[in-house]
Amino acid sequence: MASESQEIRSARDDGVCPPRSLWALFLGFSWLAIQGFGAAAPVAYRELVERQRWIRSQDFAQDWAVAQLMPGPNAINLSLMVGDRFFGGKGAAASLAGMTCLPVLIAVSLAALYNEYSDHEMVASALKAMAAVAAGLIIGTALKLLSSIERSVLGTATTIGLAVLPFVAVGVFRWPLIWVLLVLAVTATWWAHRQLGLIARERGQVR
Predict the structure, then answer these.
(1) According to DSSP H, which parts of the chain are helical?
(2) Average pLDDT per run of 10 along the chain, which is 207 residues long?
(3) Membrane spanning segments where (predicted)?
(4) pTM value?
């Protein structure tokens, strides 16, 4: 418990409002999950950073990047990291339950409805419209995350370059996403380690 309370105190010092209980985690991620139709990142950003204020914008950017590299759904991975950060294993379990219980019930119901009305022209049109909206939400979230670029240890130019490269590699050249992420993740990690070393030496922390 000491480490958990220390994490919560540290979060408060950073200007965020950590969840008060496991129940709050469960409810928060349940509400997040039932909103995440088609685009989880924008909803997760709004709920965790803007509404609940459980984490900061720059922390969300880092956590979401890690969640994308891990196997499994990105939103589930993010919920596990956030829950574990504040309440350890119990927090991770509460977050996971919140992300899965209600969505499973809703998904089963929607699947049954879709199976019944999938040939209807209005349903097909609605799905196309939802895809466009989801793309717009993702772009909007990316623009919001730009505010954290200036505080990145990688440097503004490098961070922008690392953001553009996967778009070009996957969207234009159609390279496999997994290999693009692995190469860029290793490159970004090496560069960040190098930059932190330079900063430490400048401050006289490395002898």
Answers:
(1) 2-13, 22-35, 40-45, 57-69, 74-117, 121-145, 156-166, 177-202
(2) 54 75 95 80 91 91 87 91 95 95 87 80 77 76 72 79 88 90 89 86 67
(3) 22-45, 91-114, 126-146, 153-170, 176-193
(4) 0.64
